[in-house]
Amino acid sequence: MTLRKVAVADLTEKQAASELKVLATEIALHDSAYHRDDAPTISDATYDALRKRNDAIEARFPELKRSDSPSKKVGSAPATGFKKVQHSVPMLSLGNAFSDEDVAAFVDRIRRFLDMDADQAIEMTAEPKIDGLSFSARYEKGRLAVAATRGDGSEGEDITANIRTIKSLPDFLMGDVPKVIEIRGEVYMTKSDFAGLNAAQEAKGGKVFANPRNAAAGSLRQLDPAITAERPLKAFTYGWGEVQGMEWKTQWDFLQSLKAWGFPINSRTKLVKSVEAMLKEYNKLGEDRAGLPYDIDGMVYKVNRLDLQKRLGFVSRAPRWATAHKYSAERAETVLENIDIQVGRTGTLTPVARLKPVNVGGVVVSNATLHNEDEIARKDIRVGDHVIIQRAGDVIPQVVEVLTAKRPRDSKPYRFPTKCPACGSHAVREDGEVARRCTGGLICPAQAVERLKHFVSRNAFDIEGFGEKNIEAFFTDQLIESPADLFTLEKRGGRTKLEGREGWAEKSIDNLFAAIDRRRTISLERFIYALGIRQVGQATARLMAQAYGSFSAWRKAMIAAKDKESGAYQDLNNIEQIGESVADDLVEFFAEKHNRDILEALSKELTVEDFLAPDTSASPIAGKIVVFTGTLEVMSRGEAKARAQSLGAKVAGSVSKKTDLVVAGPGAGSKLKEAEALGIKVVTEQEYLALIGG
Ligand code: IVH
Q: How many A from CA of 228 to the centre of ligand 1?
């Protein structure tokens, strides 16, 4: 944000008009970043300051209020991809209070509007303001009919299927229910679930979220509800839209109904009768804020009596009867001393700011995340800069602002490395991706352990009795650094080296080497899969094996495909289901000499069998499209898929009209329902095993 130094009172009309124009554009951009892309680029406090400034200028120059004024809008238009839902009662926003005086002024305004005396108490609810994503869920005759995001306030996205996956939100309402009721609330993710999700995403090279709110929003707005179902989402409810056939006297009574129907309401909600009591609750909650399991960004005060709410009504985008008393984010200024690049287990290069240690809200902070290359460029963050950092709850501190006025004269823009700091291999960035990745793969110490674990895993080399723990220990002790080392371990005096180790009796050493020897012959598809080439999972590995037939043919073709004009590259691209991006990952793998060296070393130790097309003439599922869903108890997913394919079936990830058979285990959800709706044959895992003969 650029600091606007002219006080609103001193603005000329011309200055005011031009600033309103800039603010309209700027706020609209931030609205889109926040609501549509779930990726805000400024802090909430900075955003609120922009809006406040806009409102203040408009208040002084009402005739300059623009037709596209931010004060007329809430949020941002819905993203495409979801069906749209019109809200029968608009989902509005709240005005903000930032200080005790603002709260007192809010209550004063109400009193004046209602023509009440200063000594007449106005009862309010004080509710924690959950930092999540608001939703509206419509229940007809007690049954969930449709659910939507807020969108732009009048039209949101249809997220009914996704809302159904949230366990704390009922599908049916219990007890006395109105004919129609739209329940409004906030979907959120707890801080610990957020940390867990990010760790899992990081491990599989998926999207890592900046904070719990973005994680909740990103998880709720998935076109595939199966993904939402896997995400740990929770909800609190606090309001309503359309209601038919029921009335309440107070907000408090309404909250009790929510509770009786089975909705989660926030237990820290209180009834208060004075500004002092409101501030006391606000301060109490503020003290506990860091320790709460979820993020809050303020306290919402609402006039408790609904008849008074009705009289008070709305001003532009917010009710007169409620306001949000915001907490300030915990911020501090410090110097960014260095930018380090960390290499994740999947090869992602992540920049980390090393800071001059500074106390932020009671916690000493010396590192902050810089997210990625683009983020550094966009904010023009440089080594030596004075920066404002922010800590919110458990979230990793972030650099929110660069104080360019304090920038050293000789500072230079940061150049993101194009070589991996851990191994020196090229670090490349693919079209459309934000992350730069190390291409070192197996030779990169930052990635090697994970790659080795993959190499020996069940669907790859499947070396019996050789688990993740052993890989880690052997790697640390430099017994195995690259895959071929596994097969040369015995030759290299592995026996004597293992004899001295705890847990390695002679018998287990014999077993290990026997297990390794049994895998010296391997199928081409398993071999390709084991290499852990980016985007090359079991299905792609199988396609490769099918298309090229032998290891030598495959290797030759992949090396030749480096030339994009070559027939080899064309052939690769022409394989059905191999897109350009997978083809590029394959070519890239072979373009690195260290990878070719590994293949060479492996080929000396192994026999890679040619691909044999399975004889599926007697298979009951040859040519059929099969979908597996729910928990399989006998087979692993990978095994089920591989077996079905070897019997000539095609395994699909979702149910459609083309599906021939659905194998459903316990816990099957939307796919099972869909199959039933489409009249597709559904069998249990046992029935399926009987069908395919064991
Ligand atoms: S009442 C017309 N109550 O804050 C009144 N909102 O800044 C609408 N929020 O859009 C909202 N906790 O997403 C209300 N206890 C609470 C809330 C709450 C969080 C969110 C909600 C709203 C936004 C307004």
A: 23
